[in-house]
Design goal:
About 40% of the residues lie in helices and about 15% in strands. The chain has about 575 residues and is α/β, with parallel strands linked by helices. It has four domains: about 200 residues, Rossmann fold (3-Layer(aba) Sandwich), CATH 3.40.50; about 160 residues, Rossmann fold, CATH 3.40.50; about 60 residues, no CATH class; about 100 residues, Alpha-Beta Plaits (2-Layer Sandwich). α14 links the parallel β12 and β13. The relative contact order is 0.10.
């Protein structure tokens, strides 16, 4: 059977996990899930070569969670991730999958979060730890995280950990984990250092390589809108108000969401229907037929039921929920722009989902342009246009003759000007929803938690270019700092951004201009850095070097920090894979 015909029930997963998957609406496994889950359930080490956004989190989380003993109050599964954002996402996914097995506890540990909370939770006992390499090492050295009973270990996005300068930390952690364990490593690329880790620390691994189908039609205009999750319904409504659409498919992740969203849209006056796997086939066919005939304008659907759907009048595809894998995104937006026709694809996403956006752009080799939610002026223009069109159409109605005496009577009784009477009738027709909105009627729901990345099309941090400032001072509210890592150490802007963001919990939008020199670099950060944050950053590493951060001056440092720090890095293991 192919992954398209397999179900999760075919993969021999425990009932509790299947129940969780049913609740979140997962219908069929992705290719990497279909291939990886049986191998991991059988106890093999695994090498997974796949891009972000192929569904790999579930590919390793589901089989390893199935092996957890909830009654054993110690860490059994350790997952290493390169960034705090990914660690949080993976931990949340594990928590969701384990929702029906109340004994399984999951803890994310990463820089920037309080040690006290992490230590307190570790002392209580957790079975699953998801962490960034630096913070995991800190806890191992403190004795608050013990790996002696870890039976499963995952390296997620290993090449990204290499790029961010964490690979020595990863090897140190691997050398301190039990030799008798099951290991899975996932990486989009296989540079030599990753191959070395595979050779030394994985035992006869099985290989799963997924080549995503990522071609998208050039006739499709792709846009994304960054919006907080709680505002997505409002954002969708505004987009539908101003977009000139014919037929629309709105994609959500779960079957329950199709019904809920279709009902909300219907309540707002749209002809919307739900389409999901729980609806009988003959009923689904009737819904699609109504869409073709123009009796329904909007379908709210899950991935599976919409695959292969070809309706000529579909002008827009809206991803209300961003898909977890790039192949699903390609299939979704492929419902429009078919046979050379033009189409529009709009993606709603939160700041925390920017990794998935980057993965889609990287896999499809196409930039998805940012869009701003419609303004009050744009909304009003569309509302007035629709109102005028309705009035002009009604003027052709022969039944107006019967109403004219009523209007004449109103004029005589009220002595109102005709324009005032028309305004009153227009207001009455509009009902509770005003025809013309004011600024106070429309909340600002644009998610600006990462405006810089939004304007840049959510570029990868690793592609971020340093700003050349020379004598230009920092922007207002920023302070310049010197860090003891530069070109000679192999430092890149992405390394620096990643280290600061992860260890100091500083969002990348607040990391200013970066200038990389030969032996040191400068970075602009928000003024007034607390001493405890500065202490954390001083110990953080980029390309194997401690940042040793300090306020920028034109004076050279008193000590050779590189030499001073030499030898203090956790030693690499010299042991060979067993």
């Amino acid at each position: 059977m192919t992954s398209n015909t397999l179900s999760f029930q075919d993969l021999n997963l425990p009932a509790a996990l299947l129940q969780a998957l049913e609740k979140v609406g997962y219908e069929t496994p992705s290719p990497i899930q279909a291939e990886s889950i049986p191998l991991l359930l059988d106890g093999h080490d695994l090498l997974g070569q796949a891009q972000t956004g192929t569904g790999k989190t579930a590919a390793f989380a589901l089989p390893f969670l199935s092996k957890i003993d909830p009654k054993a109050n110690h860490v059994q599964l350790l997952i290493l991730a390169p960034t705090r954002e990914l660690a949080i996402q993976v931990a949340e996914a594990c928590h969701t999958y384990a929702a029906f097995d109340k004994g399984i506890r999951v803890l994310p540990i990463y820089g920037g979060q309080s040690y006290s909370h992490q230590i307190k939770t570790l002392k209580k006992g957790v079975q699953v730890v998801v962490g960034t390499p630096g913070r995991v090492i800190d806890h191992i050295k403190r004795g608050t995280l013990k790996l002696n009973q870890v039976s499963s270990l995952v390296l997620d996005e290993a090449d990204e950990m290499l790029r961010m300068g964490f690979i020595d930390d990863v090897e140190w952690i691997l050398s301190h984990a039990p030799e008798e364990r099951q290991t899975a490593l996932f990486s989009a690329t296989m540079p030599e250092q990753i191959r070395r880790i595979i050779h030394r620390y994985l035992k006869e691994p099985k290989t799963v390589k997924i080549a995503a189908k990522v071609s998208t039609a050039t006739t499709i205009r792709q846009r994304f809108c960054q919006v907080a999750p709680r505002h997505k319904m409002e954002a969708l409504t505004r987009i539908l108000e101003v977009e000139d659409f014919d037929g629309v498919i709105i994609f959500v992740r779960t079957k329950t969401a199709t019904v809920e969203l279709a009902e909300k849209l219907a309540a707002r006056g749209y002809d919307a229907e739900a389409l999901n796997g729980d609806i009988p086939q003959n009923a689904r066919e009737r819904v699609v037929d109504r869409l073709k005939k123009g009796q329904v304008d909007i379908l709210v659907a899950t991935d599976v039921v919409a695959r292969g759907l070809d309706v000529e009048r579909i002008s827009h595809v809206i991803n209300f929920d961003i898909p977890y894998d790039t192949e699903s995104y390609v299939h979704r937006i492929g419902r429009t722009g078919r046979a050379g026709r033009e189409g529009d694809a709009i993606l709603l996403m939160s700041h925390r989902e920017k990794r998935l956006l980057r993965a889609i752009e990287k896999a499809t080799k196409q930039a998805i342009e940012p869009m701003t939610l419609p303004s009050v002026t744009e909304l009003n223009e569309q509302r007035v246009k629709r109102f005028k069109d309705k009035v002009l159409a009604t003027l052709e109605d022969d039944r107006l003759e019967a109403i004219l005496p009523v209007i004449e009577a109103l004029k005589e009784e009220t002595e109102a000007e005709p324009e005032v009477l028309m305004a009153a009738l227009a207001q009455m027709a509009a009902g509770k929803e005003p025809l013309v909105l004011s600024e106070k009627d429309v909340a600002d729901i644009n998610d600006r938690s990462s405006d810089r990345e939004g304007r840049a099309g959510a570029r990868d941090q690793g592609d971020r270019k340093p700003k050349r400032r020379n004598a230009a001072p920092p922007e207002e509210g920023m302070q310049r700092y010197r860090i003891e890592v530069g070109h000679s150490h192999g430092a890149k802007p992405g390394n620096i951004v990643g280290a600061i963001a992860n260890e100091a919990d500083i969002d990348s939008q607040y990391i200013g201009a970066i200038q990389i020199n030969d032996t040191y670099s400068t970075v602009d950060l928000p003024a007034g850095m607390p001493p405890e944050v500065k202490a954390i950053l001083s110990k953080a590493r980029v390309a194997g070097q401690k940042l040793a951060i300090r306020e920028w001056t034109d004076k050279p440092p008193k000590h050779n920090v590189k030499g001073k720090d030499k030898g203090k890095r956790p030693p690499r293991s010299r042991s060979k894979a067993k």
